[in-house]
Amino acid sequence: MKxxxxxxxxxxxLTDDQGAWAxxxxxxxxxxxxxxxxxxxxxxxxxxFYCASPVCSPARASIVTGKIPSCHGVQDWIExxxxxxxxxxxMSKVPGF
Length: 97
What we know:
- The structure is a single chain.
- The chain contains 4 helices and no strands.
- It is flat, with a radius of gyration of 16 Å.
- It has helices at 34-42, 56-65, 69-72, 88-91.
- It is mainly α and 97 residues long.
């Protein structure tokens, strides 16, 4: 594993209820999204990805835990679950992150 001398700046942008087709940078000529297009052009854009859930709360819990909804327990908007464990903030402390 290569350890970086300088840690990169990471800004994670997550939109809610937005399909990939809803951005100009994704090839849709009918929408104007200049700010998202600029972010996509100057950053990293995930064109092929898997979303753990079509519901926002379980999807977000999956992002911060790295687990699927059946493991972290957040199944719906209002359900409480166990999101304890290895989370994104702890990942940033891993050497080479």
